[in-house]
């Protein structure tokens, strides 16, 4: 009996010693992937869910996430080797390819499928119509970026010539647009969430329309990487995409309240009720892609919008800059 007790105590002590080492060892073996996001927004909720719910860790990945504030800066980080993966508008991959490169940037997983910006009026408008923008000063996004191109696409759809019917300001750095409007520049501004709702809450502006609702389905924000990186790290890209798909299904099947609680650690300065309100708004307009596949129809629509804005260098086939194999495998697994 004493011998059995002695053996049991020894076993427990050994177990207590080994378990922490094993846990540490597993944590140390996580593969780190550096991800550069173009902006920090509730618009990217599935990405933060994948982080907070541990889906990346389940796949053996540790994500080093940094916000690079603007498509040009995000692409610079990716091309220079400062990031492994970029979360940015698909148009950037077209710009890079059109300039000539032996290592093109490939879109491998779609995160959002509509525009994520909203039209904010400085003054409260009871019965808004797009016609009211004529003659106004419109504080738009960076020329050549998806927000601005979609903005122009929507304006033209409503019979407004953005360069003749209103005064468009496009020379303010992406990170400073909200501050410029708050300081008194412009009658209208195009903003992402949660900034749009915060402005409304603080009385700095009023949401009068959604560019996402107006523009239709488009591969607005995707995860992309250099072709060479994908080739050399195919297994990691596969794991990354699988974790993302888990998060997309989680977002699709959970309430706005549950999603808000999950992503709140990434928006500590934002009220939980406001996060929930923004998530609900994006869910209602189907902004969150329910799977990572960037299909050909969306790719064509993207280039139609670029062409309409006069920013499309040339038409590029879907198969040239889009790799759907990882997304399809994630769905099939």
Question: Structural class of the helix and strand makeup?
Answer: alpha/beta
Unreliable stretches, pLDDT < 50, 5 or more residues? 1-26
What is the straight-line distance between the termini?
51 Å
The CATH first-level class of the largest domain comes to Alpha Beta
Strand sequence of the main sheet, in spatial order?
A: 2-1-3-10-4
Instruction: Work out the number of β strands.
Output: 10
What's the overall geometry?
globular
Mean pLDDT: 91
CATH topology of the largest domain: D-Maltodextrin-Binding Protein, domain 2
Spell out the CATH superfamily of the largest domain.
Periplasmic binding protein-like II
The tally of domains stands at 2
* H/E element order: HEHHEHEHEEEHEHEHEHEHHHHHHH
Into which percentage range does the β-strand content fall? 15-25%
Number of helices in the DSSP assignment: 16
The amount of helix comes to: 40-55%
Q: Summarize the biggest pleated sheet.
A: 5 strands, mixed
CA gyration radius, whole angstroms: 23 Å
Subcellular location: Periplasm
Family: Belongs to the bacterial solute-binding protein SsuA/TauA family.
Organism: [Anoxybacillus] calidus
Protein name: NitT/TauT family transport system substrate-binding protein
């Amino acid at each position: 009996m004493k011998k059995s007790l002695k053996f049991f105590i020894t076993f427990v002590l050994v177990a207590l010693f080994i378990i922490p080492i094993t846990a540490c060892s597993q944590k140390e073996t996580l593969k780190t992937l550096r991800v550069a996001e173009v902006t920090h927004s509730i618009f990217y909720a599935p990405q933060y869910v994948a982080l907070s719910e541990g889906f990346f860790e389940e796949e053996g990945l540790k994500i080093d996430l940094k916000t690079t504030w603007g498509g040009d800066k995000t692409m610079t980080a990716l091309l220079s080797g400062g990031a492994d993966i970029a979360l940015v508008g698909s148009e950037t991959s077209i710009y890079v390819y059109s300039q000539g490169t032996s290592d093109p940037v490939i879109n491998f997983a779609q995160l959002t499928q509509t525009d994520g910006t909203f039209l904010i009026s400085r003054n409260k408008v009871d019965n808004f119509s797009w016609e009211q923008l004529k003659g106004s000063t419109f504080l738009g996004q960076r020329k050549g970026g998806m927000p601005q191109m979609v903005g122009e696409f929507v304006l033209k759809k409503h019979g407004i010539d953005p360069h003749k019917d209103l005064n468009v300001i496009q020379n303010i750095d992406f990170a400073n647009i909200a501050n410029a409007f708050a300081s008194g520049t412009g009658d209208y501004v195009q903003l992402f969430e949660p900034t749009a709702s915060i402005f409304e809450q603080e009385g700095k502006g009023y949401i009068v329309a959604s560019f996402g609702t107006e523009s239709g389905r488009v591969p607005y924000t995707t995860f992309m990487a250099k072709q060479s990186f994908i080739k050399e790290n195919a297994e990691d890209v596969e794991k990354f995409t699988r974790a993302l798909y888990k998060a997309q299904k989680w977002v699709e099947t959970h309430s706005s309240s549950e999603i808000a609680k999950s992503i709140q650690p990434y928006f500590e300065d934002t009220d939980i009720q406001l996060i929930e309100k923004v998530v609900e708004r994006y869910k209602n307009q189907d902004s969150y892609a329910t799977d990572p596949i960037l299909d050909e129809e969306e790719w064509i629509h993207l280039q139609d919008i670029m062409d309409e804005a006069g920013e499309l260098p040339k038409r590029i086939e879907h198969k040239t800059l889009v790799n759907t194999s990882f997304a399809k495998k994630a769905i099939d697994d």
